[in-house]
Amino acid sequence: MKALTFLLFVLGLYSCSDYENRGELKAYLGDFGDVLVVTDQHLWEGDFGDSIKILFTDYVPAIMPAQGQFDLEFSAPENFKGSAKRFRNVLHIDIGDKLNNQEPTITTSKSEHALDQIVIYAKAKTEEDMLNLLSKRYKDIINKVNDEEMKRKQKLLSFRQDSSVLEAIERKKGYAMVVPSSYKVLIDSGNVLWINKVSSIRQDDLEKYTVKDLVISTYDYESEEMLTLENILMKKNEVLRSITFDDSDNTFIRHQEKHEPTVRILSGGNDYKMEIRSLWTKEGAFQGGPSIQYIQLDYDNRRIIHADARVYAPGNYKREMIRELEAIIKSITPIKE
């Protein structure tokens, strides 16, 4: 594990280049996916600490090579001061019988020591109580931190946009979104928008060749049945086949059925939103990678907005690539007619 002092110094330089200090709060420190765990050193170095590391480095769904949700750093409570207090994501683990009737609790504080920082406090009387608490709630903590990271990514991406592209999308598609200027429009036809970012034109250099694709389609909302996983995936395949089919070799991109999708319902009712993480494959070719879909019900306009994002980056770690795509597709906001 990296030395925390060196990490804070280096990432402090990085952070200050992207965020301005506002008011009395300074910018947070650390890179995307970094979490600082504050707890007693003997706990961190023992079986308890090993359990915490397993929970919070749980693999990101549908990503190969496998990558953990977070990169964990450690600080003992007595060392949590100065620059360490400005770490972007902090998990305080406090074990002790400080209150006679203390129930295990998890609370969250935002911008406590730094701008846009998130600090999560977990409190329990005993190690056993704490492990039970975190075993039940670790996915909630992971989602809370990742949601915050996604919002931070949206802020960064929004600094570098092409206003003419954004205006055209709003006028023609009826929704607003973050589109960094590095992304190019491949297809803008009817109810389908396909934007793309290629990091290298050398397809023989697999270590540098990465592709980020986003396909956004809209279709009429007729019934709740349209929002089932089966129908969402069927619609995804239909749209992808229509725009990626290659007559020369009969190849096309589709959902990879061999991998079970991970589904997260973000909200319900007339504001229904769903997230799906899965794999994609190219039928008839040896290509594939991770995919994230964001489906939302635009109830006022009686339509479904279906955003499908995917990465092609053989041999590369893809967690932060997917986070970038997630930030873009989750910025999509319907415009009321």
Q: Percentage of helical residues? A: 25-40%
Rough outline: globular
Q: Return the average pLDDT rounded to an integer.
A: 90
Low-confidence stretches: 1-22
What is the highest CATH level, the class of the largest domain? Answer: Alpha Beta
CATH superfamily of the largest domain: Mog1/PsbP, alpha/beta/alpha sandwich
Return the domain count: 2
Strand content: 25-35%
H/I helix tally: 7
CATH topology of the largest domain: Protein Transport Mog1p, Chain A
What CATH architecture of the largest domain do you see?
3-Layer(aba) Sandwich
Overall radius of gyration: 22 Å
DSSP strand count: 15
Tell me about the largest β-sheet: 8 strands, antiparallel
* SSE sequence, one letter per element: HEHHEEEEHHEEEEHEEEEEHE
SSE class: alpha+beta
Quote the distance from N terminus to C terminus.
53 Å
Walk me through this protein's architecture.
- The chain has helices spanning 4-18, 41-44, 47-56, 127-158, 163-173, 229-244, 319-329, and strands at 34-38, 71-75, 89-95, 105-110, 118-124, 175-176, 184-189, 192-198, 211-220, 252-255, 262-267, 273-283, 288-298, 303-312, 333-334.
- The protein has 2 domains: 4-158, no CATH class; 163-334, 3-Layer(aba) Sandwich (Protein Transport Mog1p, Chain A), CATH 3.40.1000.10.
- Helices cover 29% and strands 29% of the residues.
- It has 337 residues and is of the alpha+beta class.
- The strands form 3 sheets. Strands 7, 8, 9, 10, 11, 12, 13 and 14 form an 8-stranded antiparallel sheet that branches. A 5-stranded mixed sheet has the order 2-1-3-5-4, with helices on one face.
